[in-house]
UniProtKB/TrEMBL annotation, chain A:
This is Transketolase. Residues 23-187 form the Transketolase-like pyrimidine-binding domain. Pfam families: Transket_pyr (PF02779), Transketolase_C (PF02780). It comes from Rhodopila globiformis (Rhodopseudomonas globiformis). It comes from the Bacteria. CDD domains: TPP_PYR_DXS_TK_like. Keywords: Thiamine pyrophosphate. PANTHER family: PYRUVATE DEHYDROGENASE E1 COMPONENT, TRANSKETOLASE-LIKE PYRIMIDINE-BINDING DOMAIN-CONTAINING PROTEIN.
Automatic annotation (TrEMBL), chain B:
Pfam families: Transketolase_N. Its cofactor is thiamine diphosphate. The chain crosses the membrane at residues 33-54, 66-88, 108-130. Residues 18-258 form the Transketolase N-terminal domain. It comes from the Bacteria. The lineage of its organism: Bacteria, Pseudomonadati, Pseudomonadota, Alphaproteobacteria, Acetobacterales. The keyword Nucleotide-binding does not apply. Belongs to the transketolase family. InterPro entries: THDP-binding (IPR029061), Transketolase_N (IPR005474). PANTHER family: TRANSKETOLASE N-TERMINAL SECTION-RELATED. This is Transketolase. Keywords: Membrane, Thiamine pyrophosphate, Transmembrane, Transmembrane helix.
């Protein structure tokens, strides 16, 4: 670090991931759920002391009689959500991704997933979206949850993705885990011919030189990276995969089979057990063997610090990702 | 309830039949959680033939009281009661624990009519019961939720999260049943992670607590009546002190009877004891 460059501060627990001047929408999850609940009396909202930090407070304000504050007790949160689902309600249960995946796993697995109950688990701070260090950075939540039968896993990219995913996961019969961006959430996908469809991958941008398969906020970064690469006359395709499980293997295979394009999987998650390994497995199982790379977090406990610093350090920022790809291509 | 009809079997007869059903299932496997089943039979007899509202021919009837078997390995006891209650056909008894049976060794909702949840990952039942009690209140249902748990589950932190929550939400439709037989896989519960003093502990968590001899049918019935009839806006717990293998003296005397091995001829010897008991009454 040069002496003249100011050191960034970690800031709040849950800083916005929006870049400077980026278009954003406030609390897309909370507003979408509140609107949907007006049509769906079966929907209830539950949280373990994190309504404000998961945007569920918007729902709670709109539907106070359908909001359950369960206190700081994530195992109870999941058990009680299972009980409400058993009685015919559709609970949206929110907490941080670390607590759902690490602390409440068994309660989700046996209490909810084993019986395919209609609980929607929506979790903030996925991957590296806080500078608070490993206690709050859910860098392995996808790895943890991918092994759970019956569970649908969604990692939306931006405010539009979240708004459209909420009614889609509510309409789906069965348990869902959704990673959440909250607060002032970037709006990116409105500039593309895109609509969220549960279980479907979508090609946002075509390109002949490299295929980037991405999910969550890394789709946003992949699109920025594609712009940066174009300056060097490298044309990148971006395939957005908002549903991690079940994986849209047919679309991924069809895109990856196009000869001559290396495949790069980009995700806000550990290199272990996330979208990257899921894509690699489906390609290998089907005899498709392009050059393959991952842009993902290292298999280690990450540093604390300011998010922009950390995204640069671990290669998730668009400039870092563009540099990495240029090195590979 | 069956006991309300003239000439209906008494609760003691129901309990004996539940023990018989459990022993016959145990004989199919040659081993199992038979000591727990014999110990809890009196409580289950009172539950299914005195306290619970249910329709044997319609296990999912919306107005039913929900009976959650948090302690999944008590499935043998639960099946024995559900067979006696007419929810499960009697001839399925011989399929207990056999491939493709509806009666697996650990209770699961998807397998068995009358089984509300998949228990077995101990400490989960009470949290689910909280959610179901909240749900029933949302629906303005008058049904009760019963959560049947073991003393071992008192060691699970999740039990106490749920206990706090039930009191917080004033869940007067929730009745927790704790089978205190003081026997876990590695030895006496109180020697490993002692939950005593247990009734004051539940009271401190905001519950109405009773502790009774779970093998005294009159006391069990009175405790159920008190728990159901209480006007106070708080959840209720009944702690049942029970004796492992109750009713079969040579099994009661066996140490370390958490997962009992029974010799082939002993099953019939045990059933004969119940037959003699019936004949002398």
């Amino acid at each position: 670090m040069s002496a003249t460059k100011p050191r960034l501060t970690t800031s709040a627990m849950i800083a916005s991931i929006a870049g400077e001047g980026q278009k954003t929408k406030p609390a897309p999850f909370g507003h979408a759920l509140a609107a949907l609940a007006a049509q769906r009396p079966d929907i209830v909202g539950m949280t373990a002391d994190l309504s404000k930090y998961t945007d569920l407070h918007i729902f709670a304000q709109a539907h106070p009689d359908r909001f359950y504050q369960m206190g700081m007790a994530e195992q109870l949160l999941m058990g009680a959500a299972a009980g409400l689902a058993r009685e015919g309600f559709t609970p949206f249960a929110t907490t941080y991704a670390v607590f759902a995946s690490r602390r409440a796993y068994d309660f989700i697995c046996l209490g909810i997933a084993e019986e395919a109950l209609n609980v929607k688990i929506v979790c903030a701070l996925p991957g590296l979206t806080t500078g608070y260090g490993p206690s709050h950075q859910a860098t392995e939540d996808l790895a943890i949850f991918r092994g759970m039968p019956n569970l649908t896993i969604v990692d939306p990219c931006d405010a539009l993705d979240i708004e459209q995913a909420v009614p889609a996961i509510a309409a789906h019969q069965g348990p869902v885990y959704m990673r959440l961006l909250r607060g002032a959430v970037p709006l990116v996908l409105d500039e593309y011919d895109y609509k969220f469809e549960l279980g479907k991958a979508a090609l946002l941008r075509d390109g002949a030189d490299v295929l980037i398969v991405s999910t969550g906020l890394m789709t946003m970064r992949a699109l920025e990276t594609a712009d940066l690469l174009r300056r060097d006359r490298i044309e990148a395709a971006v395939l957005h995969v908002p549903t991690i499980k079940p994986l849209d293997e047919a679309t991924i295979r069809a895109q990856a089979a196009r000869a001559g394009r290396p495949v790069v999987v980009a995700e806000n998650h550990s290199v272990v057990g996330g979208l990257g390994e899921a894509v690699a497995a489906t390609l290998l199982r089907n005899g498709i063997a392009p050059r393959f790379r991952q842009v993902a977090l290292p298999d280690q406990f990450l540093d604390a610090g300011a998010l922009p610093t950390l995204h640069d350090r671990y290669g998730l920022s668009a400039p870092a990702m563009a540099a990495t790809l240029k090195g590979w291509l | 309830m069956a006991t309300d009809r003239p000439n209906a079997p008494t609760l003691a007869e129901r309990a004996r039949n539940i023990r018989r059903n459990a022993l016959r299932m145990g004989e199919v496997q040659g081993q199992g959680y038979i000591a727990q089943a014999l110990g809890i039979a009196d409580v289950l007899a009172v539950a299914y033939f005195h306290a619970l509202a249910y329709r044997p021919e319609e296990p999912d009837w919306e107005g039913r009281d929900r009976f959650l078997l948090s302690v999944g390995h008590y499935a043998i006891a639960m099946y024995a009661a559900l067979i006696e209650a007419g929810v499960i056909p009697r001839d399925e008894l011989e399929t207990y624990g056999i491939d493709d049976s509806r009666l697996p060794m650990s209770g699961m909702a998807a397998y068995t009519p009358g089984m509300e949840i998949s228990g077995g990952s101990l400490g989960q039942g009470l949290g689910i019961a909280v959610g179901m009690s909240l749900g029933l209140k949302r629906k303005r249902s008058g049904a009760f939720v019963y959560n049947m748990m073991s003393d071992g589950e008192l060691g699970e932190g999740a039990t106490w999260e749920a206990a706090m929550s039930a009191a917080h939400w004033k869940l007067d439709n929730l009745i927790c049943l704790v089978d205190f037989n003081n026997q876990q896989a590695d030895g006496p519960s109180t020697s490993m992670l002692c939950a005593e003093p247990l009734a004051p502990k539940w009271e401190a968590f905001g519950w109405h607590a009773q502790r009774v001899n779970g093998n005294d049918i009159a006391a069990v019935r009175a405790a159920f009546d008190t728990a159901r009839g209480l006007a106070e806006p708080r959840p209720r717990v009944i702690i049942f002190d029970t004796r492992m293998a109750r009713g079969i003296p040579f099994l009661e005397a066996r140490e370390r009877n958490h997962f009992l091995r029974v010799e082939p001829q002993e099953w019939q010897q045990a059933l004969a004891i119940l037959d003699r008991e019936e004949a002398t009454q």
